[in-house]
Amino acid sequence: MDLITLDFETYYDKDFELSKMLTEDYICDDRFEIMMVGLKLNAEPSKVFSFRTLEEYDQLFRAWNLRGNAMVCHHTAFDGLILAIRFGIIPPMLLDTLGMAQALLKPYLRSVGLASCLKHCDLGVQKGTYVGNMKGRRLASLSPTELGKYARYCADDCDGEYALFQHLVKQLPKQELEIIDMTLRMYLEPQFQLDFETLQGVYEDTVNKKAELLSSLPTGIDKKDLMSNPKLAQILEGYGVIPPIKVSPTTNKPAFAFAKTDPGWKDLEDEYEDDPLIAPILAARTGVKSTLAETRALRLMGIAKDHPMFRVPLRFYAAHTGRYGGTEKINCQNFTRIKPKLGHRRQLRYAVKAPKGHSVLAADLSQIEVRINAWLSNCLSLLSAFRTGRDPYCEFGSKIFHRAITKADEKERFIAKTCILGLGYGMGWKKLQATLRKDDVRLTNEQAYDYVNIYRNTYREITGNWNQCGTAIEIIAHGGKLQLGPCMAEHNKILLPNGMALVYHNLRYVDSKKYKGWTYDFGGQGRTLWGGTIIENICQALGRIIVMEQMLAIKKELGVRPALQAHDELVYVLPTPQIAGYEQEILKLMRIPPGFAPDLPIDAEANHGPTYGDAK
Fold first, then answer.
1. What are the pLDDT digits (tens) for 288-315?
2. Mean of all residue pLDDT scores within the chain
């Protein structure tokens, strides 16, 4: 199989560009025009072709055998979607230097655009700027000279993408290339449909909720106070919410991450979307015309109306730990879980459905991060519960409520479950209060404080591991080696068992009034770090490795690929008559411990139904 590097240049103007619309809408629009395409066969010189008709391009792609060769682009979701929609072509192996750069270069760069990557890697190739002259220019309007300059720009892009691929592929484990291919196919070969009426109900409820939020600030809080960063931080801390901090990579000065574009602020909005106290505060601070949930509902309604299938847009290796992120203003990683107490189906997951004759099957790893944390810490009581099938939530609930808790004690078990899932990375009592408040559970200060102390005294091995990971920070900053389970801490990074690494670029100690502690850079922004964060990073990264290896194993053994992957969950669309058999085989594969942890007590559960909501 040959490698073909491909780069499309397409028409755009101030009102018609990708930043203002969905990629699929852009490509399907009547204004869409291919200006030219650059093609490069293996290491041969790049060639640029410009035609007036799609038929001529189609003949070109047939001649280059795109249906039989591997293809690499920088943003294959875009170039690949042009091929899929306009020509019905999806190459057998999809590669993407954007995804590869996200995994390998994001710790060092604010942007992983082609220009930034080429400059950082110093490959002797530069991305040109001539495309900036093409805004509003149709192919027919270009002079021969302009066409020649544009073609040179396109050829340089192809050369740059190929050089970047050759540079990065040596550093990326082979299975990550397979995962990139599978990720792109969730988008290019969609399996879900959307229900417009359900989405319309979701949108209307979201709009009403926003109005309620903006008018329901907690007593004693003035909107003017929320415009002051120090006052907002003080208010959030009073409710148990830790204000996100960003540290400038250049000045080393910490600041509150309260800008709408700050990752820390976005995380706050996602985490406290349903909190009756915090959500109004965040909404009033931003004064947004539309919330994230509102924008997403509108976009999904547009897809349901204009397109037959829902293409799942995932950003490969978006997080520091390797997890996916959202894109196209549709974050499929945080589709709100079904809330039975609402008593209706106007919920987002119910709108994501399987085509006729098929069902949605959702399978996820049970408490995988808790299990990994217990295994890394050798926490015998938790490990014993998991290995023998006992309920660790009921066992811990019995400790904090001083009586035997069973599954019939739903509220008490839920509180204990929240403690087990949340306190393993050092969560304090105020944050525990805030976490439970989102589910209408109110703890007194004394209760929350007691629950945290009981957890830390019960699972001393886990809290002891935070201290060891604090030592690892010194190793990462100054050099040396320290084994952390299947991982190895060394200068600048923690090596993972799959060949990837958690990179802590520019790790340094900050001592200021706002923040005292360790910080590192990721994506051009400083992030805070302590022992609990290290163990959280490791657990999330190992959890990601496990579920991705399972995704590949299921594809190899059963021949099916997921329609969506979210956190520790694999979601499939499968023929309804065979769904029970698939469920059994998928669970069997997901219950096999990973090679790096053969004694890790691992488990999985699954369900299926006509929609994502019915399955999970």
1. 555 677 888 899 999 999 999 999 999 9
2. 93
What is the pairing mode between strands 254-256 and 245-247? antiparallel
Does the residue 465 lie in any domain? no
- Please give the DSSP secondary-structure letter assigned to residue 139: G
The structure's pTM equals 0.91
Q: What angle do CA 547, 368, 271 make, to 5 degrees?
A: 95
Token pair of 57 as six digits: 């391009």
Distance from C-alpha of 243 to C-alpha of 482, rounded to nearest angstrom:
31
User: Do the Cβ atoms of 98 and 76 come closer than 8 Å?
Assistant: yes
Both structure tokens of 153: 């720009």
Q: Two tokens at 340?
A: 């039975």
Length of the chain: 616
The verdict on residue 332 lying in a domain is no
**How many angstroms separate the CA atoms of 209 and 41, rounded?**
54
Q: What are phi and psi of 309, to 5 degrees?
A: -130, 155
Nearest alpha carbon to residue 18 among 304, 323, 292, 313: 313
Backbone angles phi, psi at 144, to 5 degrees: -55, -40
Determine the longest span between alpha carbons in the chain, in angstroms. Answer: 84
Q: How far is CA 55 from CA 34, 60, 61, 80, in A?
A: 12, 9, 10, 17
Q: Are 405 and 412 spatial neighbours (Cβ–Cβ below 8 Å)? A: yes
Q: How far apart are CA 580 and CA 506, in angstroms?
A: 50
Neighbours of 295 (CB within 10 A): 16
Residue with tokens 């959030």: 236
Cβ-based neighbour number of residue 95 at 10 Å: 22
The H or E element spanning position 196 is helix 196-214
Q: Residue 267 — very low, low, confident or very high, per pLDDT cuts 50/70/90?
A: confident
Q: Give residue 451's domain range.
A: 380-458
33 lies in the same domain as 139: yes
With 0-12 CB in 10 A as exposed, 13-18 as middle and 19+ as buried, what is 445? exposed
Kindly report the backbone phi and psi dihedral angles of residue 211, in degrees, each rounded to the nearest multiple of 5, phi listed first.
-60, -40
User: Do 278 and 392 reside in the same domain of the chain?
Assistant: no
Query: How many separate domains does the chain show?
Result: 4
Q: How far apart are CA 417 and CA 320, in angstroms?
A: 26
CB of 360 closer than 8 Å to CB of 566? no
Least confident of 149-153, 172-176, 268-272, 355-359: 268-272
The predicted-structure confidence for 80-104, as pLDDT tens digits, reads as follows 999 999 999 999 999 999 999 999 9
161 domain-assigned? yes
